[in-house]
Write a structure and sequence with these properties.
- It is a single chain.
- With 844 residues, the chain is an alpha+beta fold.
- It contains 20 helices and 35 strands.
- It has a 6-stranded mixed beta sheet, with helices on both faces.
- A hairpin with a 4-residue loop joins β32 and β33.
- The longest helix has 21 residues.
- 53% of the residues are buried.
Length: 844
């Protein structure tokens, strides 16, 4: 008789329904194995073919923290494009490069943090207050714009295959979350219901219903008195929207139930609470808490089965259990990462994201008119200011200085000076090493063999006696004695000069910076093995540099302890050099603003006006305003290129400089794009996705989540630059606005747009709706549609925009449900929220 081939287990049979395959696989797993899948770093289950995997990867504007990748403009810059099709193409590149990298990883990288296919992006929180340091990660202040761009990005990342995911995307942070960063682990948000349903929730609903986003991440804070990680209002909303992906915690938020909110006494109780609520991945929490919860009767294994099923469903959608050749995305080659085509798309995105805020005629620059140009400012030669945060490593970044040099060539003498630091340093604070640093932990004193744990640390501040939830204790599986650790990362400089590099350690250390050994103290002197030593060296480092470093540590007597920080040079402004260069120039390009070294996620910032990653004040820092005033006083044309991830209040600069350009954090090709705009190769077409206020005094308290007084919809003052604003080198006119009602209360709106200027250009047509005043008196107006159109000079095109019914609905406080207010609506076609060109009315 012929030998019979052993039959495949059901979960390995691609012909069977996915739910049946998942049920079969779960039935073969032990409780411990199931629990291990529900922490972000999972060991896999080799006996069942479940691979080692880490659910945590990042892809906000390019694959992040995983080496070289195409780096697009920061998310706020992508929003400034107002270009949905391009946004989807960019998301697709992130998915393709994620697959290209994943398919090429060897066994050491595959399955480790930041090297997976579940990208915890995009961040679709509403940028309600410009002081929030993470606002740069969002698509701005408007829920409709955020929804449209978020849906496009998710569709791009996840692909259009009906069975397989190109990669998984994540909607975060669900749902009412936008600072302050230092308070995020424990503060409560109590918005009026209209704000919740009209501002904070719509983008999440859109990503679930329209884009079928694979992952939703809960927020740290609480909503209406209940932490978001266990909030029934939020989980019931996901169920109502028919969400069928996985829910992850923000990292450490399960611990917050123990330490911040005091809802649970220990990890077992906390895990039981979040799993019963609806969470599937508990980032930063150990799986043993789940096992203990089941054994103590706090949690049924049936709930564990349901939660792990959601995670396995994602793995099935990623093709992990199907025969080779079935998942088309598994064939993407490693060479499809960081390609010339992707670089060209990054350049296009950077060009479209740049917003021209003021121009008295000096732009575009007439190169023959200027023999010498001075480029001055802290962001002129900065790579960190190009890439923002949650970023990859660009293979060939172009700074603004480099972009101008390349564009001008030898036709113009170009001189550069740093000029000044971003802001004044706080005297009492010295910076710690900021950023993500990869730590490899060894269970021996020689760093030999494979590490027993890998962890990304931020900052480097290991203290073995610290609580695990503080993020400074030893990772799980690392013994408490006889260990060694290696950290790798990059040291970022702002000003050039003498830096003090300081290591505090109980044990031996070696520090290599930019390939050079700067500290070699591996063997402490007798009697020092059990005491903390402070080792400091000084090095002369260049400005705006990214210098790779390696810090090796071997434990001495007693608990492991080591930290690393560097101090910025004394605040020598460099003003004299900058003014001397400027006096000899025919034109000055000042490249200032801030960077993600000052604004970002929960970090130590040693500058005046910044705290924990947020800003206390939104004004351009005083040291930069002072330098700008001296440059303007030279009576030469001054072009101010501002790089920032948030709105800067700069009324003096806006009044006195000749041109003002908002470039955000423009990505790897930012310098080329800025040069293209300044020299007229590109006609600027970006539009503001946030309001630029005149002063911090214009803002309500940062901790107040009420929308009253915030954003263009509810602010009644006069902004410096309004939401949707952006100038062009040409001029557009509008005519013939008409509206057709479609099924389901959607509207089809058409308008004729003419390029009436002397250049080809792109216009962003914006539609704003105001409901009947009697039914909804709260808002001034709300964006309900937009479209980008390219026009040759003299050309007229009809632009037709569909206004979905969801853009017209409002929260009815009497019925506690959405409804479209009935009566006469006002519909406006505009160049910005403050530049209304045509108005019509429609009865709904």
């Amino acid at each position: 008789a012929l030998a019979q081939k052993p039959s495949l287990p059901l979960y390995r049979d691609p012909a069977k329904p996915v739910d049946a395959r998942i049920h079969d696989l779960v039935s073969r797993m032990t409780l411990e194995e199931k629990a291990s899948m529900m922490q972000n770093t999972t060991p896999g289950v080799p006996r069942l073919g479940i691979p080692r995997y880490d659910w945590w990867s990042e892809g906000l504007h390019g694959v992040a923290n995983a080496g070289v990748a195409t780096v697009f403009p920061q998310a706020i810059g992508l929003a400034a494009m107002w270009n949905v099709p391009l946004q989807e193409r960019i998301g697709h590149v992130v998915g393709v490069e994620g697959r290209a990298k994943y398919n090429g990883y060897g066994p050491d990288l595959r399955g480790t943090r930041f090297h997976g296919l579940t990208f915890w992006s995009p961040n679709i929180n509403i940028f309600r207050d410009p002081r929030w340091g993470r606002g740069q990660e969002t698509y701005g202040e408007d829920p409709f714009l955020t929804s449209q761009l978020g849906v496009a990005f998710v569709r791009g990342i996840q692909g259009d295959n009906p069975k397989y995911l190109l990669a998984g995307a994540c909607a975060k942070h669900f749902a009412v979350h936008s600072g302050p960063e230092p308070l995020r682990h424990g503060f409560n948000v109590d918005p009026v219901k209209a704000d919740l349903y009209e501002t904070y929730l719509p983008a999440f609903e859109a990503l679930v219903r329209q884009a079928h986003v694979e992952v939703v991440m809960t927020a740290y804070n609480s909503l209406y008195g209940t932490p978001c990680s266990i909030n029934p209002l939020l989980y019931s909303s996901l169920a109502k929207w028919r969400f069928d992906g996985q829910v992850t915690s923000d990292c450490g938020s399960v611990d917050d139930l123990v330490y911040s909110y005091k809802r649970a006494k220990n990890q077992a109780q906390a895990q039981a609470m979040v799993l019963k609520a609806g969470m599937d991945v508990t980032c930063g929490a150990a799986s043993k808490g789940i096992v203990e919860a089941v054994k103590e009767g706090l949690l049924s294994e049936a709930v564990v089965d349901k939660r792990v099923s959601a995670l396995l469903r994602t793995m099935f959608r990623l093709g992990f259990f199907d025969p080779k050749g079935m998942d088309p995305y598994a064939a993407i080659k490693p060479s499809e990462n960081d390609t010339p085509e992707h670089a060209a798309l990054a350049l296009r995105a950077a060009r479209e994201s740049i917003v021209l805020l003021k121009n008295d005629g000096v732009l575009p620059l007439q190169v023959g008119k200027y023999q010498r140009i001075a480029v001055i400012g802290p962001n002129a030669s900065s790579v960190p200011a190009l890439v923002g945060n949650y970023n990859g490593t660009p293979s060939a970044p172009v700074t603004v200085l480099a972009g101008l040099r390349a564009a001008l060539g030898s036709s113009v003498q170009l001189d550069y000076a740093h000029g000044c630091d971003y802001a004044d340093l706080k005297v009492a604070e010295r910076p710690v090493a900021t950023g993500w640093f990869q730590g490899e932990y060894f269970a021996n004193s020689t760093m030999s063999g494979k590490p027993v744990a890998n962890r990304w640390d931020r900052p480097i501040a290991l203290d073995a006696v610290a609580s695990d939830h503080e993020g400074r204790g030893l990772p799980e599986g690392v013994p408490d004695h006889g260990i060694s650790v290696r950290w790798t990362g990059s040291l970022l400089t702002n000003l050039g000069g003498i830096y003090d590099l300081t290591v505090r350690a109980r044990g031996g250390v070696r520090l290599v910076v930019d390939g050079k050994m700067v500290i070699d103290s591996w063997t402490p002197a007798p009697g020092q093995r059990g005491t903390e030593r402070v080792i400091s060296v000084s090095r002369d480092l260049p400005d705006n540099a990214t210098l790779p470093f390696t810090l090796d540590y071997v434990q001495g007597d007693g608990a492991a302890s080591v930290s690393f920080n560097w101090s910025t040079p004394p605040a020598e402004s460099g003003e004299a050099n900058a003014l001397a260069i400027a006096k000899s120039a025919d034109l000055i390009v000042y490249v200032g603003g801030i960077s993600a070294q000052l604004e970002g996620e929960e970090m130590s910032v040693p500058y005046v006006g910044f705290k924990g990653g947020d800003r206390h004040t939104i004004e351009l820092p005083a040291v930069q305003t002072a330098l700008l005033k001296k440059l303007v006083a030279l009576d030469k044309p001054v072009v101010f290129v501002n790089l920032s991830g948030s709105a800067i209040a700069m009324p003096w600069a806006a009044e006195h400089v000749d041109a003002l350009v908002q470039a955000w954090y423009p990505g790897e090709a930012g310098g080329t794009a800025v040069a293209d705009v300044l020299l007229g190769k590109t006609n600027p077409s970006g539009r503001l996705p946030v309001t630029f206020y005149r002063s911090t005094k214009d803002l309500p308290p940062f901790t107040d989540y009420a929308m009253a007084g915030r954003t263009y919809r509810y602010f009644h003052g006069t902004p410096l630059f309004p939401f949707g604003f952006g100038l062009s080198y040409t001029r557009f006119t509008y005519s013939n606005l008409r509206v057709v009602r479609e099924l389901g209360d959607a509207l089809s709106v058409s308008v004729d747009v003419t390029d009436a200027g002397g250049r080809d250009g792109d216009e962003v047509v914006q539609l704003y709706a105001t409901p009947p005043a009697a039914s909804h008196p709260r808002e001034s107006e709300a964006l309900c549609g937009f479209g980008r159109v390219h026009l040759a000079k003299g050309e007229t095109k009809t632009v037709t925009i569909l206004v979905p019914a969801t853009a017209l609905r409002r929260w009815d406080t009497t019925t506690n449900a959405y409804a479209i207010p009935r009566g006469e609506w006002t519909l406006r076609a505009a160049e910005s929220s403050a530049d209304i060109l045509l108005t019509t009315h429609v009865d709904l």
